[in-house]
Amino acid sequence: MSQRGGKLVFLVDDDAKLRKLLAKFLSENEFQVREFGDGREVCESIAADEPAAVILDVMMPGENGLQVLERIRKVSEVPVIMLTAKGEDQDRIYGLELGADDYLPKPFNPRELLARINAVLRRSLPKAGEQALAQTVVAGSFVLNRSRRTVSAGGAEAELSLTEFKLLDALMTRPGMVLTRDELLNFARGKEFGAFDRSIDVHISKLRSKTEAVSGGKRCIKTVWGSGYMFEVDA
């Protein structure tokens, strides 16, 4: 279940005793915590639950934390704090190069972890004016509400799936620009898509139905044969 608007944190570590200790501490400090013993389901859960931050251990059996971080960065810009073994400078450097926001060597004081989480959350927040502006995208008579994941026109509104939202966000922020299927796949990348998957056309078809329903039949998503799709603003 999505926790939008709350401070949900993913805690990924194979040490169950440490997870329990940290989860209890963070819960006492107004965070909701979801625990993972490995990184297998993390990326799918990020897309579904949109956590505020991820705490990710480097040293895990099977797929290590650096490999998990690499997968996360293909689908999300969520702040990630890496937990590294003390003295493992190479892991720290490589993690930062892959897109980690901070690192913390073990053993550590839970209060320091809390301070690091709050710091990366402050850095990831847009300024007040930018935040208000970023909540909506307007193109012609259509308004995309990012916080509610809806599209509206003329007072009518339709809810969007996560994939539909990502596709429409990409198109509406680039009105009049043709986006190829590969480019749209990159914006809406998820486990349901393969490298040459044409199911994106199905999502576009559903998007058209919803945008036409709220606009009284106005078609805003144009197929550019042999190229891709384009969002047409009102003439």
TrEMBL record:
Organism: Geomonas terrae
DNA-binding residue intervals: 134-233
GO BP: any one term: regulation of DNA-templated transcription
Protein name: Response regulator transcription factor
Sequence positions bearing 4-aspartylphosphate: 57
GO cellular component annotations of the record: cytosol; protein-DNA complex
One Gene Ontology molecular-function label: transcription cis-regulatory region binding
UniProt domain OmpR/PhoB-type: residue ranges: 134-233
InterPro entries named in the record: CheY-like_superfamily, OmpR/PhoB-type_DNA-bd, Sig_transdc_resp-reg_C-effctor, Sig_transdc_resp-reg_receiver, WalR-like, WH-like_DNA-bd_sf
Keyword Membrane in record: no
CDD domains xref list: trans_reg_C
Pfam families in UniProt: Response_reg (PF00072), Trans_reg_C (PF00486)
Alphabetized UniProt keyword annotations: DNA-binding, Phosphoprotein, Transcription, Transcription regulation, Two-component regulatory system
